[in-house]
Amino acid sequence: MARRAKPDGDTRSLSREAVLRFLAENPGRATKRDLAKAFGVKGDERYVLTDILADLQSEGVLEGSRKSYRRPGELPTVGVLEIRARDEDGGLLADPVGWDEEERGLRPRFAVRGNASGPAVGIGDRVLAQLTYDGDESPSAKVIRKLERRTARAIGIFRETPGGGGRVEPVERRQLEYTIPPGSTRDAQDGDLVEVEPSEHQRRSLPTGAIAEVIGAMATERAISTIALHAHSIPHVFPAGVIAEADKAGPATMESREDWRDLPLVTIDPRDAKDHDDAVHSRPDEDPSNPGGFVVTVAIADVSWYVRPGTKLDAEARLRGNSVYFPDRVVPMLPERISNDLCSLREGVDRPALAVRMVFDATGEKRKHDFFRIMMRSHAKLAYEDAQAAIDGRPNTVAPDIVETVLRPLWAAYRALVAARQGRQPLDLDLPERKILLNEDGRVDRVIVPDRLDAHRLIEEMMIQANVAAAETLERRKQALIYRAHDAPSMAKMESLRDFLRTLELPLAKSGNLRPAHFNGILKAVRGTEHESLVNEVVLRSQSQANYSPENIGHFGLNLMRYAHFTSPIRRYADLVVHRALVSALGLGPGGITREEEVDLERTAEEISQAERRAMAAERDTVDRLIAQHLASRLNEEFDGRITGVTRAGLFVQLPAYGADGFVPISTLGRDYFHYDEAAHTLVGERTRLGYRLGDTVEVKLVEAAPLQGSMRFEMLTEPRELPGTTGSFHKVRPRSSRPGRPPRAKNVAGKVRKKR
After folding, report:
1. pLDDT tens, 313-345?
2. What is the three-class DSSP state of 525?
3. Does the domain made of 78-146 have the CATH classification 2.40.50.140?
């Protein structure tokens, strides 16, 4: 694997040892770009460097990402801190911003050292600081510069004070408390959840502010989702300049477009969808050389026409990264003037689009594809349920001519694509998605698992094919882009999975040869058995997390070599970048990608990957808080549950009827002393050898619910059982944190197209 290269004028071999030596000698130059420059990596050598870094990470010798690699245990020497509190002597204490406790351990607190020549700073300020770790002493920080004070709104519970005005208690301990002067309360009532606009100039011991919005009683879903927005720092109020740009936008022209308004494209979406960014059409291929083939067209809203690089709209969209979905509302990436109006493919209305026309043979294999910039007109707005009912011959509201000329050809093409998909064998995990339904008061009514229809699968498969076509075209044109990347599982995770499967006497191929088909074979072997849910859960956790990257590593879960998100530019910034790349590469007119964007693709990919994870966490936290609020009045009731996490501190149990989980402390499991077996995902009694395993169905009693924290505590009612396949031996495992966290969350590994609500 060793290659010859010239780092900084010297000759050095590109090897594992050389990479580790460079990182040790150059702690301030630890990005992938730094490494490539230092070793003179070009062409195919990029893949060698990528493999070396991946191997070192999988073995636990290296941590981090392309943005910053480091040896395990290494701590940053410069970082962004937020000043949170004072110590007993009045000194300032600061916490690092964006600290990942799962990756780096517990968050340190830095003592801010005095700096006579430095800027004046106080509680609430963000600073760039030089960080020092003094052995057993508390870490300290020297301020380099003060960063711009954030004036974003805060959130809290309003409390009235005698004589008028009040104060706002934070909903999280790390947030500030605000004083609200009389006349600035907006008639908020004691106990209301409110948003606070901090004052620019603070002259009191407590920061002051004005109530910007009264959200209302804490029990409503809107209040709970607003907490998640603030807790995860998700932008949700569009600046006036962004709204002004959106309001000035007008209908697109025919410039650089083909007129496809007569083609009967249709949208198929959830019944309550407000924006429609994709439309589909299919017809038999009339080419005699392709008997039984199909021509499938996917048209996607042309957001790149309206959102141009360098505009305020573009800057805000990049900051948000994606739309965020809650049970009661959507926090959009783009203002409604763009997302729900000018770019929404409304029935009977002219709309600009980028379209890909794909030709498939009778077996579902693609023969060719082409992209076009068009003006289209949707011929029908269909809900999934209505489209499926029309195909099944059940009562529906779809016009008969649409059924015959549009839907039946679509389903015929879909059947061919399904055959090709089965041959490709993407990862086939059984992961039901729950949906929370609210009543008129904004409270939880019930939780359902929507039916998974062929109509859903049809749209999903056609979007996947369009995404593949986009990546292939841009690669062929040698145009830089952002891929949707999903790496193969790491060696460490595969060894852990192999150890677990061995307890069930299930074999797994060696890591170097693993493909999704191997996992599918395991899942098929346990289908219908008591281990089905357990194995699905463990296989899911063994997968890498999908992200965005300017480097193509393929999509392991979908078993595709080239894959880029193209089909949802209204709600994902990655798709907008791909649209711009297509416009430039194919010479389709204005709105293409700029040279500055191309140079910055790595940073863009990293930022929108973080925004996606942030959105997923906010959505999950909202569900947890909603269910805790919903069940808070049902203490001491008994529920059916399933163990979804096993830790040395206890068990996480999910209530399948609600899709939320709670915790059973290990100290409450009984008189036996329970040991944690990491490989087998079990807690086993030392004396009885009975225990609990990930995936077990259990019965629990709800003993505590904390809606603000989104947490529930259960008492285990199901007795421990004999666990076949366990060794009965106990071993110590390296602690990863001094406090229990949630079980690992489901990762976005399937690459499914998430439809609008």
Report:
1. 999 999 899 999 998 889 999 999 999 999 999
2. helix
3. yes
CA angle 583, 585, 587 (to 5 degrees): 60
571-575, 644-648, 650-654, 727-731: range with lowest mean pLDDT:
727-731
What is the secondary structure of 403-468 as a DSSP string? IIIIIHHHHHHHHHHHHHHHHH----------EEEE-TTSSEEEEE-----HHHHHHHHHHHHHHH
To the nearest 10°, report the CA torsion of 719, 724, 727, 729.
0
- Using the structure block, give the residue that is written with the tokens 């309003």: 158
State the Rg of the chain over Cα. 28
pLDDT surpassing 70 at residue 203: no
3-70: CATH, from 2.30.30, 2.60.40, 3.30.160, 1.10.10: 1.10.10
Contact 331, 230 (CB under 8 A): no
Contact 467, 484 (CB under 8 A): yes
Residue the block writes with tokens 């290990």? 666
Question: What DSSP designation does 720 have?
Answer: P
Q: Which CATH class is domain 635-722?
A: mainly beta
The CATH 1.10.10 portion of the chain extends over 3-70
Beta bridge partners of 705: 712
pLDDT tens per residue across span 2-55: 333 344 433 346 777 777 777 766 655 567 777 888 788 877 677 778 778 777
Task: List the beta bridge partners of residue 413.
Answer: none
CATH 2.40.50.140 domain extents, the chain: 78-146, 635-722
Helix (H) / strand (E) element for 127: namely strand 126-132
Instruction: Please spell the DSSP secondary structure of 332-401, one letter per residue.
Output: -SS-HIIIIIITS--BTSEEEEEEEEEEE-TTS-EEEEEEEEEEEEBSEEEEHHHHHHHHHT-S--S-HH
For 208, other C-beta atoms within 10 Å of its C-beta total: 18
3-state secondary structure of 547: strand
Q: Environment class of residue 661 by beta-carbon count within 10 Å: exposed (0-12), middle (13-18) or buried (19+)? A: buried
Q: Rounded distance, CA 666 to CA 672, Å? A: 10
Backbone angles phi, psi at 580, to 5 degrees: -60, -40
